[in-house]
Amino acid sequence: MMKKALTIAGSDCSGGAGVQADLKTFSAHLVYGMSVITSVVAENTSRVIDFQNVSVDLIEKQLEAIFEDIIPDAIKIGMVESPEIMRAIRENLEKYQAKQVVIDPVMYAKNGCPLMRESSIDTLIKVMIPLADCLTPNIPEAEKITGMKILTLEDMENAARSIHALGAKNVLVKGGHLESAAIDILFDGVEFTHYHSKRIQTKNTHGTGCTLSSAIAANLAKGEPIKVAVSNAKEYVTGAIENALPLGNGHGPTNHFYQFERVVKL
Ligand SMILES: Nc1ncnc2c1ncn2[C@@H]1O[C@H](COP(=O)(O)OP(=O)(O)O)[C@@H](O)[C@H]1O
Ligand SMILES: Cc1ncc(COP(=O)(O)O)c(N)n1
Fold first, then answer.
1. What does DSSP say about strands 134-135 and 101-103: parallel, antiparallel, or unpaired?
2. Which helix (H) or strand (E) holds 51?
3. 101 vs 206: CA distance, rounded Å
4. pLDDT tens digit string along 100-151?
5. Residue-wise pLDDT tens digits, 219-250
6. Coil, helix or strand at residue 89
7. Torsion (CA) 173, 101, 238, 209 in degrees, nearest 10
8. What is the pLDDT of residues 61-110, one digit of tens each?
9. Which residue has the least CA distance to atom 1 on ligand 1?
10. How many Å apart are CA 73 and CA 33, to the nearest integer?
11. CATH: 3.40.1190.20, 3.40.309.10, 3.30.470.20, 3.40.50.620. Which one for 4-257?
């Protein structure tokens, strides 16, 4: 039976990040994808023009529609802009006894535009982080959550440990923003696991964080243990960046379908 995954995230109309990247990732993993849209973002590879949050009422009704009918095997949470939406997600996921929750604490788009308001940070820490089976901050997000400056791999480990203490079961601090190789570090409360890949020289990195977190959720939905799920997802995102699409004028999107290009004529 096909596994099912849900993304709770913002809509990127240009298709490279947010809900659209997540659904493409689920499909590429042959996992049935569902979505709860938290915010409609008018954005492309270069800029965010505007966004409008979906009402708490309609977010709750989307969750109701899903959970009364098709129970997801794993959930990925992306852009959640306001404290009210964070609280509603927490209450509902507890009510529906949601399993395997991966949270990408999205704060900014690649061009630096904020996708979470500054005053949400406390609620993110108190309300969202304890929900996470796996939290996947990038370096600037881990710095905001911990108040630490992160420059080295040791700093990444310390940040992962301190975010774990806030209640996330597993913490993956992503090294996409490092200068050197792209090394991500997982802390499961006991030990650190380093996931290495070479740095790919490209500006086409729109949607990398969304792709990684939804690939982790897809692997968890299939029943993989967390370390294997992260390892498979890291391999997946590396391929998706290596083959990223030179679309648009800014940061082009990750490619979810390069494996199929050999067998299907585009
Ligand atoms: N240039 C790159 N080469 C290889 N891997 C990268 C590159 N940029 C990001 N990654 C990887 O993509 C994933 C997403 O990381 P990151 O870009 O830090 O997240 P975000 O999109 O949240 O800023 C991580 O696994 C990271 O190591
Ligand atoms: C709706 C939405 N959600 C998330 C991101 C961040 O994307 P990423 O960090 O993966 O490039 C984005 N640009 N838009």
1. parallel
2. strand 48-53
3. 23
4. 999 999 999 988 899 999 999 999 999 999 999 999 999 999 999 999 999 9
5. 999 999 999 999 999 999 999 999 999 999 99
6. helix
7. -70
8. 999 999 999 999 999 999 999 999 999 999 999 999 999 999 999 999 98
9. 200
10. 10
11. 3.40.1190.20
128-152: burial string, b at 16+ Cβ within 10 Å, e else:
bbebbbbbbbbbebbbbbbeeebee
Kindly give the distance from the C-alpha atom of residue 190 to the centroid of ligand 2, in angstroms, as a whole number.
30
How many Å apart are CA 88 and CA 41, to the nearest integer?
20
Q: Tell me how far apart the alpha carbons of residues 41 and 215 are, in angstroms, rounded to a whole number.
A: 22
Residue 266 pLDDT > 80: no
Ligand 1 pocket: which of 208, 237, 238 to mutate (most atoms <8 Å of CB)? 208
Residue that is written with structure tokens 């977190």 in the block: 213
What are the tens digits of pLDDT across the range 156-178? 999 999 999 999 999 999 999 98
Tell me the pLDDT tens digit for each residue of 173-210: 999 998 889 999 999 999 999 999 999 999 999 999 99
Pairwise CA distance, residues 47 & 204, whole Å: 14
Strands (E) in 54-191, as ranges, are 74-77, 101-103, 134-135, 171-173, 184-187
Active-site residue, selected from the candidate residues 3, 76, 144, 174: 174
Do 169 and 188 meet the contact criterion of CB atoms below 8 Å apart? yes
* Cβ 210 under 6 angstroms from ligand 2: yes
